Amino acid sequence: MILKRLLSILAAVGSCTLAVAQVQAAEPVKNVVLVHGAYADGSGWRGVAEILQRDGYKVTVVQEPETSLSDDVAATTRAISQAGGPVVLVGHSYGGIVITQAGSDPQVKGLVYVAALAPDANEKIGETRSKFPPATNNVVKSADGFLTLNPATFHDDFAADLPEADAAFMAISQVPINEKAIAATVTEAAWRSKPSWYAVATEDHKINPDFERFMAKRAGSTTVEIKGSHAVYVSQPQAVAELIEKAAAGVAQD
Predict the structure, then answer these.
(1) Which CATH architecture has domain 28-252?
(2) What is the pTM of this model?
């Protein structure tokens, strides 16, 4: 009789432990690392970051130097390491290339692409992209090989749905990107082994929305379409933050 009671108690304790473990496993990832793209800096993520922080997420915004892909991946990997736990990694535009490589880090549980490039391993993304020409291509190259967008057309090209004053400031505060960074290839495509989400910017003039759809489909990403410019992460922070939160909940269920 005593043995039966002991076994019953042990079984009950085991069931409680399993239930607690299941609840813990179901909790969403609470660390989000945001990676900006070419010509911009991390400040554009402010609206998204504030929404995520309000909702209980720990947010890190990477200020990658845009001097080379390896430098930018190193900056992102550093942020992932310092996050202190499992991470949802988010990239905009060129930042998609960065997270595709940096996303192989074991702490990264899911990837979110926001109007972003999502190359395959060893793919020359420029060649693939040429099949989907963008609406504009007003790139200015410096003598030492760094690229910016023509400030005169920046508003229409990059941020058509932002107030003119905001776009004007973004135009004069651009982060020049080394042309070799954009042309570099990733050695591993994290989206091939990890779940991904993709926000297509339907009014994008810098990356053809059809190219975004192509990359999202190829990666098997859970995809949403948001009416917005290339700067959709600035103009539509609520919609972008909602997708990131869905990703955080989605990876927790795996």
Answers:
(1) 3-Layer(aba) Sandwich (3.40)
(2) 0.89
